[in-house]
Amino acid sequence: MFSVVVPLYNKSFYIEKCLQSIIEQTFLAFEVIVVNDGSTDDGLERVIQFIEQSRSHSKSEIKLINQINSGVSVARNKGVKEAKYDFIAFLDADDWWEPFYLEGMKSLIEDYPEAGIYGSNYYLLKNGRKQLSTIGVEKDFKKGIINYCQVYAKTLCMPLWTGATVIRKAIFESFTGFKHELKFGEDFDLWIRVALKYDVAFLNKPLAIYNQDVESKSRAIGKLHKPDHHMLWNLEYLAGEESINPDYKHLIDNLRIYSLLPYYLNKNYHDLAIKELKKVDWSKQSASARRTYETPFFILKMINHIQYVGSRIKQFIISKFILSIKN
């Protein structure tokens, strides 16, 4: 039995598709908990209407909880607190599942009951097209227990993306859930804490869709968050793990090198980024990673700007091409 937690904040354009993908699951033993985080659009009205319309043809129970705007972590934690079943699944209001998602996770739980957390592969939706996420498992890997840090470090593509993750409620609560003070990486922070103590079971089958075509203003990715709100600056509690666990050390160093570049190039955060980058064991990093940070600052900034402009032009051309096809 699953409790599906859906945080909602100003995602009225997507929420109905999200909920529809849940009630159309082939495995039907679940409840849905929508936590409206103080939305100011018509998302709340759409959820109420969806609940009314679905009662006539769906046996699924959909609860609606309202709270003042407090952030996605508070909303998810509130949903879990109200959940009545042993396994918690999460789905953001702008993402959706394939019909066999919960059935696949049920099978994974039955096959690996000793695990504490479960995940499946997923699609990334970019420019209207689905592409398989590049999880760092072998091509012939079907399902099983994975070394979370090793798999994550290979491609830096999340093995546990929140919309394709199921966790035992008791374990979620024992870790006190998501940290509400984090605005970026609150999911990574929780999953790494769990993965360092419990087995991670993974199904290498894409059963969820991570929608990256959402307006950038409503996404945490691609923004410079204050260090107090960014998970990379708030992992001191795992400093001991970093000193004794080479897999975790390699993962966190890779994330530092990848994620801190925009901060390194920003005058407001440059010194803080340098301080954090000093923690990296550069002897274990690739030559290309070392060259990046050895490049003279003004040249690196110019290269980064050119790449950014080129990426925006490419995205614009692709979006116009897709739109012309649809029309």
Quick summary of this structure?
The chain has 327 residues and is of the alpha/beta class. It has 13 helices and 10 strands.
Structural commentary:
The protein has 327 residues and is of the alpha/beta class. It folds into two domains: 2-214, Spore Coat Polysaccharide Biosynthesis Protein SpsA, Chain A (Alpha-Beta Complex), CATH 3.90.550.10; 227-326, no CATH class. The chain is built from 13 helices and ten strands. The chain has helices at residues 12-23, 43-54, 72-82, 101-111, 148-155, 169-174, 186-195, 239-244, 246-259, 261-264, 270-277, 287-294, 297-326; strands at 2-8, 30-37, 61-67, 87-90, 96-97, 117-126, 129-132, 143-146, 165-168, 200-211. Strands 1, 2, 3, 4, 5, 6, 7, 8, 9 and 10 form a ten-stranded mixed sheet that branches. Helix 2 links the parallel strand 2 and strand 3 (61-67). Helix 5 (148-155) runs parallel beside helix 9 (246-259). It starts with a strand and ends with a helix. The mean pLDDT is 92.
